[in-house]
Amino acid sequence: MTTTAMLGVIERRITELVSSFLAMPDDERLDDVCAAVLHATIRQATVSSEGGKRLRALLAVDTFGALASDDSRRGALIDLACAVEVFQTAALVHDDIIDDADLRRGKPAAHKALAGPAHDAALGTGLGIMLGDLLATASVDIANGAARQLPNADAIIQAFLTMHREVEIGQVLDLAAVQCPMSDPERLAQASLDVFRWKTASYTTIAPLELGMLAAGMSPDEARRHALAIGDPLGLAFQLTDDLLDVVGSSSATGKPIGGDIREGKRTVLLADALTGATPDERRELTAMFEAPMRDETQTARAIALFHTTGAIDRSRDRIETLWTRSLHAIEMMGCPTESRTILEQACARFVPSVHYTPREQDSM
């Protein structure tokens, strides 16, 4: 099956699974006003679940395909992969509330949409929190149903719950990172990389790899070891790439306004690298800018310019290439047949998009 065809299968299956989980019994009677709000929230669950590159689901599917000797359980594996995507949607709904983001995947963020025609921000925030909770619960239900049809069922559920816990810890670390002093760029960079490991890599790369390996019959200890070796550096590279796209990409490609991280005052690795490469005057300028309550469009453009001139953009690309090399080495160390190794490499390469190519990718273009 082609990647495009698989994306269609995943997209349709996510809609089916979310709709089934949230469906209300036909004989349930509610007050008309309450029913209208509930149904709007359920509809938003479907809308919020639409779109996205489905990188996580594809990684789980391809990992299974590379390693499984029996393809008869692919349907259950696809449901498990969809569970990761549903969890991601839950995390994004909550993330957008924390950041007070307006857009997600080119559409109004869930809490903005749920504010309704009256633009009731408090209602939208409350419903957004509950929507995120509903989707997170749905993801566990979907994963549980899929695991019952796969090898290592208990280990699959444990891995899925570990993913939940690590992302939640990562979100706490993300909120705490704003307290890190900009006077110590190296410390700031490390704090940001810690956030990447817990908040991003855990469910973006490590969990899909581990779940695909477990579903293919690999032992739990071996699956965890290989998933960490490949997925940890890959997840960091992915988040560094995402941060890079925030300043060198386009809104049409990312579905978010360019410079969003700067406007939110996020303490990113890009910022840390810019502070390291900045002159004393530039460092004072950046520090004052990011310590201010907000940044306007002129300041955002200035910060992006400084990211370029201080070498932060190039440093980020170097970090990405180093991490990508580590992931490739970890895949090689698995000792898989050439065909399986190629499938895994190609699946992992999706996490380093066209903003940066390694020499190996350039040779194959």
In short:
With 365 residues, this protein is mainly α.
Break the fold down into its secondary structure elements and pairings.
Layout: H1 3-22, H2 32-49, H3 55-67, H4 74-99, E1 103-104, E2 107-108, H5 110-113, H6 121-147, H7 153-176, H8 185-215, H9 220-248, H10 251-254, H11 260-263, H12 269-277, H13 280-291, H14 297-309, H15 312-333, H16 338-349, H17 359-364
Antiparallel strand pairs: 1-2
Task: Explain how this protein is built.
The chain has helices at residues 3-22, 32-49, 55-67, 74-99, 110-113, 121-147, 153-176, 185-215, 220-248, 251-254, 260-263, 269-277, 280-291, 297-309, 312-333, 338-349, 359-364, and strands spanning 103-104, 107-108. The chain has a two-stranded antiparallel ribbon. It is flat. With 365 residues, the protein is mainly alpha-helical. Strand 1 (103-104) and strand 2 form a beta hairpin. Mean pLDDT is 92; it is low at 355-365. The chain starts with a helix and ends with a helix.
